[in-house]
Amino acid sequence: MKLRYNESHQFYIMQVTDTHLGTYPFQENDKKTLHKLQKAVEGLKPDLIVFTGDIIYSLKKHFAENPLKSFEAFIHFVNRLETPYVVTFGNHDAEPESGIGRAQLWQIYQEKCLYKPLIMGEHLFEDRYSYLVPIYDTTGQIIHQMCFVIDSGDYSGTNHSYYAWVAPEQIDWFKEAVRKYSIPDKKYQHLMFQHIPIPEYWLASLDIQSGEFSEDIGENLSWSTGQTATIPFKNFVASPEVNSGLFYQMLMSQSIWGMFVGHDHDNNFDGVYKNIHLIYGQSSGYNTYGTLPKGVRMIYLNEIDGCIETQTVQYDC
Fold first, then answer.
1. Has residue 233 got a pLDDT over 90?
2. For residue 163, with 0-12 CB atoms within 10 Å meaning exposed, 13-18 middle and 19 or more buried, which class applies?
3. What distance in Å separates the CA atoms of residue 87 and residue 130, rounded to the nearest whole number?
4. Peptide bond before 240: cis, by omega within 30 degrees of 0?
5. Number of other residues whose CB lies within 10 A of the CB of residue 310
6. In the chain, helix, strand, coil percent, each to 5?
7. Inter-residue contact 181 to 120 (CB < 8 Å)
8. Domains of the chain by range and CATH?
9. pTM above 0.90, yes or no
10. Max Cα separation, the chain?
11. What is the three-class DSSP state of 149?
């Protein structure tokens, strides 16, 4: 399915993140999440939905008895929305001790998704799938924008960082994809989506254009691991402690308008660092921690002037 701007030269992307669906059959909080999401899609009418990870839980301690069934039920639900959609995974979708793998989830999406957009340039590093989603102009002949969807992994498994970082192999893929699919006279137009924020989100928090920076490390870690932590910061970006250099390639490419992540449920800011927007989605699921209202993030693209705008939309507004 080829995505293209409509006759009014508009294209709308909805970012949905951290739905955290638990055991299937779904319980009250999960049913509430799916009901609210359905109403949001019906009201906002996106042309593409991007799910940026932590779609499901995969551990029993996080209310997941049968994660593969939960993910398949999620896919069947989204199919009923009759809107093109893509997925990437977070740190909870297929945790190392869960007994399931990211490849299994990706296979379910590939086989069961009824509204799959055209995907290009697939790349596999270990068990992480990254790929490109082109958005064509109104004629359907020329690529106007490219969405880079990167699997940022889960945990590093080292003493260097709690969370994983985007691997050098993935960064090499990004660099080559930018070169191969570069669009003449189109700078700072492309979008990136992944789950875990990169370290530069700390710097973007110094220049917040909109939204809130209120993630609490104690609440974050107590939910995920049962641990508590004390850090010398009022608020927190749960990025890897290792900087693998993805932002440098984004900067050098002169092609990226912004990156969209999830992961931190009480951050939903749009911050700017070196003219690149580093943006959080709006935490979308009720079966998890968070004090911010649940909702989605909308991204509005204009073909005529190349303008890109984004805002969070709360479910109950």
1. no
2. buried
3. 10
4. no
5. 22
6. 25, 25, 50
7. yes
8. 3-314 (3.60.21.10)
9. yes
10. 54
11. strand
